[in-house]
Amino acid sequence: MWKLIEDLGDCLRQVPGVTLAIENTVRTSRSPETSLTTLSSISLLLTHFPHPAIALCLDLAHLHLSELDLNDPVGRETLFELLKRLRGRTRVIHVGDSCSAHGGRGERHSRGHLDVSSIRAILRHPLLRGIPTQLETPPYYRGLRHTTSTFSKRVSALETLRTSLERDFVQKIVNVPDEEWALKEKIITQRYFEEKKRVEDRIYKIMEKLKLKTADSGGHRWGKWKRCRDREVAVSRKVQGMKRRKKRSRACSLERSREQEGKQNWGKGSDREGDVAGEVQVKLEKL
């Protein structure tokens, strides 16, 4: 830690007037206590090195993956406690999701494990109000961005549309009032995913035409794009399957607990009936 502080001091002296924002990443070591890339380690670093040119770049996907379960209110409260120690030294927030669950090791951004309501609760917190946010979403169609063909221009335009949908969606979930969000959370989320799917389907059709038109370059681009898309679909299906299995498991455990409670109550009722019958028999014998 102290060696890192000395190196940061040397860098800032050599490049004055520059703010260095340190991003929390997925930890490289097996123990979060021995890693210098977690939010707790960066918070400790900024506490011992209160230089105004050193700040924090908060990555929600990395934080949820390797350190805190942001879907849990306890994890979010721990995040806010760490941010309070920094006293406003957070400069930017990377908003994204991860293809791996909390505690995993995959770093690829995807739709999956970080709930929209959790992202909303974090971005609406007073400690993070007004801080610039940057969306980190999977680049499906990077292979066509720097070509000059008509197909690549159309795909690039649709990519821009997809990015604007994502940006508007994040702004909407942050700015919508709590009462409206409680009533329309599913509607807002479902509408966004439907619009995004329509844009991606249009890109899919363009890439299909490109495959049929040019067998050499187009086929190569098509294969690269299709592999990326299939990978995203597989990850999404895996995540949804895990959620369904967890839901069924919770339902089964709840049903078993109810059955056990019913058996216990039935046994108590039978014992009580037996006691009452015995009391009646004793009274009859006395008569």
Short description:
It is built from eight helices and four strands, in the order H-E-H-E-H-H-E-H-E-H-H-H. By secondary structure, it is α/β, with parallel strands linked by helices.
What can you see in these coordinates?
It is globular, with a radius of gyration of 28 Å. The protein has helices spanning about 1-15, 40-50, 60-65, 75-85, 115-125, 150-175, 180-215, 215-285, and strands spanning about 20-25, 55-60, 90-95, 135. It has a four-stranded parallel sheet with strand order 1-2-3-4. It is α/β, with parallel strands linked by helices and about 290 residues long. It folds into two domains: about 1-135, Divalent-metal-dependent TIM barrel enzymes (TIM Barrel, Alpha-Beta Barrel); about 140-245, no CATH class.
